[in-house]
Design a protein that fits this description.
Strand order of the largest sheet of chain A: 6-7-8-3-9-10
Number of domains of chain B: 1
Radius of gyration of chain B: 22 Å
Order of helices and strands of chain B: HHHHHHHHHH
Structural class of chain A: alpha/beta
Number of domains of chain A: 2
Order of helices and strands of chain A: HEEEHEEEHHHEHEHEEH
Helix content of chain A: 25-40%
Shape of chain B: globular
Helix content of chain B: over 70%
Largest interface: A-B, 33 and 26 residues
Distance between the termini of chain A: 21 Å
Oligomer: heterodimer
CATH topology of chain B: MetI-like fold
Largest sheet of chain B: none
CATH architecture of the largest domain in chain A: 3-Layer(aba) Sandwich
CATH superfamily of chain B: MetI-like
CATH class of chain B: Mainly Alpha
CATH topology of the largest domain in chain A: Rossmann fold
CATH architecture of chain B: Orthogonal Bundle
CATH class of the largest domain in chain A: Alpha Beta
Strand content of chain B: under 5%
Structural class of chain B: mainly alpha
Number of helices of chain A: 8
Amino acid sequence: MSQIEAFKHAQPVPDDIAVSTRNICKTYGSVEALKDMTLEFPRGQLTSLLGPSGCGKTTLLKIIAGLLPPTSGEVTVNGKPVTGPGPDRAFVFQDFALLPWASVLRNVAFGLELRGVARSEREDIAARYIREVGLGGFEQAYPHELSGGMRQRVGLARALSVDAQVLLMDEPFSAVDEQTRRKFQEDLLSLVQNENKTFIFVTHSIEEAVYVSDQIAILLPRPSRVSEIIRPTGFRQKSADSIRRDPEYLDIVDDIWASLRSYVE
Amino acid sequence: MVYRPLFLKLLSALILFGAWEIAGRIPVSYAFPTFLDSVAALWRMIIDGSLFVAYAETLKPLVTGVAISTVLGIALGIWIGLSRVFDWLFSPIFVVMQSAPLAALIPLLVMAYGIGLTSKVFVVCIMAMPVIVLNTAGAVRHTPENIKAMCRSFMGTRIDMLFKIIIPAASPLIFSGLRLGISAGFIGAILSELKITPTGVGDIITFSRSIADYPSMYAAIFSIIVLAVLFLNLLERTEKHLFKGNDRGYVSD
């Protein structure tokens, strides 16, 4: 299915687009990592980039973040072209990327520190988000004293505290255990509802993508392209614990697996 | 918890000094005094002040050399670690310096810089600097990519990257380079006093050996080792104070 057709079959996309990528290509030497990638990310919603490994989903996320330059094409955030990292975007890393020599408080405040916010002000903001992600009381702890799940909460609090409109999450829950991941996914649902931010979420888990997303972009590898856009709507309003039993949820998971299985060796 | 390491330290000191005392009493060699004789000689030199006079002389090249090696070594190491060109340009010099047979090179240094302080400072630097430079460069080169990307994504400048990411991340290896380099610097200071002109502690060693006053000779050697150990402990405390969470390694490893 070509991209144009994929868009035709998709549900109508909301008008308010926070982030869009137009004809993004990325080549490493002779290897084509991304080819002609055009995608739109509606404001206030969570869009997942889902695909088998090697499909370039993390590369695309880093291009949106401004961490990698595209070989050609353009990313716009709120209509403005991206030339590098900006205050409108914050990144949550797969491996947390915490400073081992800094306390939780300094780690969470680090994004604000780099933006030149005064110490007392940034520590107030950081302390508030530390409580919000459920780490109250651990302000003075060091990362090595925390569990994997708690470390990612620090990474999340750091991204939230800079108050960017777009949150870029690179497989944020893949390095934490299954039970913590389920809790994180539930927390993410309420975060999307309460925070009025645009989330772009990279994952390789089909269930996770369907569970948390307003919109799922299925990416296929070699060369990387968008094969399908899915917008699960039926169960979005349901409570967090009944989603996993919803027939639409199960159907979408099955459909996605059916279209991806031939690409998984 | 606090007492046990101290207790272990005292125990290992006791075993070492006990073995020294026994070896001295057998005796292993007539040129090897007992521990108690050496301590008595050390006490004598402290009382008559000759030890302090000697150290006033020895510390000049030692402190100058170690200070130069630390500042210049870390700066050069960071530069080499950051730039491929400077790596290509400077790294070989320090690799050669590290493996050069220094004692054989001292006559060359003396010909070029005379028998004064300059040559001695050079010897200390040649001993101390390579490991500081090479350790720092290696650590800077291997700064974890994920925290560098983190710094960039939160809009850190190049200055932020250097002072808030690269240097703190490299600090454990920089400090281990400093520990090795500074102990080598102590060896260099004594070596220069034995090989260039006998002054300070080197003079005590040379002179006591020539008149077969072995307890004084070993007392001088013992004192320099104690000084080195004290200094390295101070360095470790500084490191722990500056970078508290760093001794546990990287959380994402």
